[in-house]
């Protein structure tokens, strides 16, 4: 039986402010919770229904696991249709991003992306294509937002997501900075070399004016039809796919 | 001033049943409404605030246009943040799909896609890459759903979206049927020839067991990392992009 203060604490994690205060975020659903249990993330507590318990892997003894009923789950879930299990997971603290980490490979850099579904989908896609990190500007949507976690379909458990001053990052970059723009060179002919940052802009405004001057390679997904732009998660996927097609992503390196 | 029955009729269009009954759907926002005004769709009525009126193009005399205030707009809008203008647009009635229409080109076929955001994004992406039609199974989400219309970012105004028995369609197909599966040939090496249907499956279950036997070319987006699958709108985009890269989409034909 959950107390009112417990319910209040858990539901407060639907807001970024309280996620940062408690250092915790929510993961829901058997598949996602299982992936976080098998990851480097620190799962702190699991709330599950009797029915869902059978579908979960063995929960390590150091993780407190609480059986609750459907009504209680509904009260703490951020999903319209709760999925039997909800975990509280620690927000990780990564070592600072240094040039060493970025060299000899490719990283997706997101410039103030706002839609949590887009961010989650980019993480899922980057994971499919073998990347290990996504770098977000400070002003980007919080990846620990329930919708972003959900859209990542468990891939967040395998990815490192950094928040950093990306203007500084691209200004100081010793490696090429590729930027997705509407008037650059065709992506299919682009020589990506062996390392680089791939910058994708905000949903409405594209790459910010502070970041744009530091883009060393302006790259475009050629348009045949009439849409004004592509969704940012779609653009990110097309860049990841081009890197993969050209043999630039080595699963051994990442 | 909108009457209660008027408000009821408009908000009823948020449900598929009433959209079909009235043959109408809702388009919101200056950009989208402008694109529908410039399209072959029949815009029947426009509700706009005084502020939004200045941003709209000249509205033809045969379209009834009604000025309303912010509060009234909020009552009829399906958006959390209404965008100044809401149009009622007629659901088009296309001639039946025949082999002639499908030959000498490529069409995306969606097998019971459920998420309206995914459908809208696929329409936007197909429009970017110069396709003119998207074909949905009867069980797919309704494209005139507000979220699908919104996610298409105006591209729906330029696209024909068919709902048909796709099992019959692929069974009778005289042209190749490419299917997005997890264990097919790599997409980058696939010879798409000059025409075909590109089938993408449901978000959870992939291509249905009724459709799968009619897939003549099983195609896979090669995975390097660990995600279990890709989002269906991402997969659709990667197929469209491959067709574009290989010069299979001729803007003159579509």
What do you see in this structure?
Two copies of one chain form a homodimer. The first copy, chain A, is an alpha/beta fold and 254 residues long. Chain A has two domains: 4-90, 60s Ribosomal Protein L30, Chain: A (2-Layer Sandwich), CATH 3.30.1330.30; 99-245, Alpha/beta knot. The first copy, chain A, has helices at residues 4-12, 16-22, 30-37, 50-53, 70-76, 99-102, 116-128, 146-151, 166-171, 232-245; strands at 24-28, 43-48, 64-67, 85-90, 106-110, 133-137, 160-164, 177-186, 196-200, 217-220. In chain A, helix 8 (146-151) links the parallel strand 6 and strand 7 (160-164). The model of chain A has no long low-confidence stretch (mean pLDDT 95). The interface between A and B is large, with 37 and 37 residues.
Major pleated sheet of chain A: 6 strands, parallel
Relevant CATH superfamily of the largest domain in chain A: SPOUT methyltransferase, trefoil knot domain
Strand percentage of chain A: 15-25%
- The chain-level structural class of chain A is alpha/beta
Mean pLDDT, all residues of chain A: 95
CATH architecture of the largest domain in chain A: 3-Layer(aba) Sandwich
Strand order of the largest sheet of chain A: 7-6-5-9-8-10
Radius of gyration of chain A: 20 Å
CATH fold node name of the largest domain in chain A: Alpha/beta knot
How far apart the termini of chain A lie comes to 44 Å
Give the helix proportion of chain A (percent range): 25-40%
Unreliable runs of chain A, pLDDT <50, ≥5 residues? none
């Amino acid at each position: 039986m959950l107390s009112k203060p417990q319910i209040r604490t858990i539901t407060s994690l639907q807001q970024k402010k309280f996620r940062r205060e408690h250092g915790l975020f929510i993961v829901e659903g058997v598949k996602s919770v299982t992936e976080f249990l098998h990851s480097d993330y620190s799962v702190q507590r699991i709330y599950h229904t009797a029915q869902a318990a059978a579908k979960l892997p063995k929960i390590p003894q150091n993780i407190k696991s609480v059986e609750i009923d459907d009504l209680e789950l509904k009260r703490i879930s951020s999903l319209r249709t709760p999925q039997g299990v909800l975990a509280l997971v620690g927000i990780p603290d990564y070592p600072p991003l240094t040039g060493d980490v970025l060299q000899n490979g490719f990283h997706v850099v997101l410039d103030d992306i706002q839609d949590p579904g887009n961010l989650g989908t980019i993480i899922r896609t980057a994971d499919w294509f073998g990347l290990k990190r996504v770098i977000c500007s400070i002003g980007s949507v919080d990846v620990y937002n329930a919708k972003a976690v959900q859209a990542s379909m468990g891939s967040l458990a395998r990815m490192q997501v950094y928040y950093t001053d990306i203007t500084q990052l691209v200004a100081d970059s010793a490696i090429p900075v590729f930027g997705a723009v509407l008037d650059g060179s065709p992506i299919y002919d682009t020589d990506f070399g062996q390392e680089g940052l791939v910058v994708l802009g905000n949903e409405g405004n594209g790459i910010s004016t502070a970041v744009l001057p530091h883009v060393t390679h302006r790259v475009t997904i050629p348009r045949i039809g009439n849409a004004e732009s592509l969704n940012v998660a779609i653009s990110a996927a097309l860049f990841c796919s081009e890197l993969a097609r050209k043999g630039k992503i080595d699963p051994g390196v990442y």
